[in-house]
Amino acid sequence: MADLLCMGEPMLEFNQLPPGPDGAVHYLEGHGGDTSNAAVAAARQGASVGYITAIGQDAPGDSFITMWAREKVDSATVIRTDRAQTGVYFVTHDAAGHHFLHYRTNSPSALYAASDLPRDAIAAAKMFFASGISQGISTSAADAVFAAIDIAREHGVQVAYDTNYRPRLWPPARAAAVMHAAIARADYVFPGMEDALVLTGLSDPDEILDFYLALGCPVVALKMGEAGAYLADGEYRVHIAPHAVQAVDATGAGDTFCGSFLARILAGDTAEQAARYANVAAALKCTGYGAVAPIPRPHDVLRILNA
């Protein structure tokens, strides 16, 4: 049984590369999906990780099974189905950053229901992790995440949650209501600055921390992108300065932060130690293309932290 169980929607990724000498645009095939990315990040940092989802009986689904096996992410709690096809998305880049185009309607993950949950595996875990995307893809998926949180809390399993708001999935009012209900039952929450502005109407980092602490979540790690991270636990708060890199693709950086943070918590770090580690890991992820391939290993992160 895995210590960390992540739940959500994996999607095959096609990430735009810089134009070649002939000006042609090419795409790098890879793997994405926020909680799957986080699972890989946690596994690369040494955590015992499993994944909860449903994927198609198709080539992208086969590719995920192969990738998870290679990355030592346990797929025993992954359902294969021929009812629908595994989702796909494209990432493009321009001066404004990276942009997503998703093909996910009625994906196997969106059809996932509470009755599909691996109850024994969740009860035996140490940490359960989900996100706003995990719940935003469908009503049944949202209910399944709530049911998983109930199982986790009933058995003393810690809960972590990443807001990861996607406006194409649901309107702000519904997203805020669902996410905040989940976060109120979580032990760790990872809001992003842009998410917080939409979901809470707040722009001041301290007010955002206050908001999520007031929901009842004991530890809040505010992801601030190029500005680093801001951590609070109700008694203290600390700003973690960004680690400067030559960034080419920020896809999955926040997921790398979450997975790396949770891996370090499970390894016994304090929240601040985990956040400092995760901050560097997320920055290093941005030095390569794709959500998964550039996720760093511990020696890369520790070399910087110990410099």
How many strands, which pairing sense, and closed or not: the largest β-sheet?
10 strands, mixed
Kindly report the average pLDDT value: 95
Strand content: 15-25%
How large is the count of helical segments?
Answer: 11
The CATH topology name reads: UDP-N-acetylmuramoyl-L-alanine:D-glutamate ligase
CATH architecture label: 3-Layer(aba) Sandwich
Order of H and E elements: EEEHEHEEEEHEHHEHEHHEEEHHH
CATH class placement? Alpha Beta
* N- and C-termini, Cα separation: 36 Å
Radius of gyration: 18 Å
Task: Write structural notes for this entry.
The chain has 307 residues and is an alpha/beta fold. It has a single domain (9-305), classed as Ribokinase (UDP-N-acetylmuramoyl-L-alanine:D-glutamate ligase, 3-Layer(aba) Sandwich). It is built from 11 helices and 14 strands. It has helices at 34-44, 59-70, 119-124, 132-136, 139-154, 172-183, 193-200, 205-214, 253-266, 271-285, 298-305, and strands at 4-7, 11-16, 27-32, 49-56, 73-74, 78-81, 87-94, 97-103, 127-131, 158-162, 188-190, 219-223, 229-232, 237-240. The strands form 2 sheets. Strands 1, 4, 5, 6, 9, 10, 11, 12, 13 and 14 form a 10-stranded mixed beta sheet that branches. It has a 4-stranded mixed beta sheet with strand order 3-2-7-8. The longest helix is centred in the middle third of the chain and has 16 residues, at 139-154.
Q: Helices and strands in order, then pairings?
A:
Blueprint: E1 4-7, E2 11-16, E3 27-32, H1 34-44, E4 49-56, H2 59-70, E5 73-74, E6 78-81, E7 87-94, E8 97-103, H3 119-124, E9 127-131, H4 132-136, H5 139-154, E10 158-162, H6 172-183, E11 188-190, H7 193-200, H8 205-214, E12 219-223, E13 229-232, E14 237-240, H9 253-266, H10 271-285, H11 298-305
Parallel strand pairs: 1-4, 1-9, 2-7, 4-5, 4-6, 9-10, 10-11, 11-12
Antiparallel strand pairs: 2-3, 7-8, 12-13, 13-14
Helix pairs in contact: 1-9, 9-10, 10-11
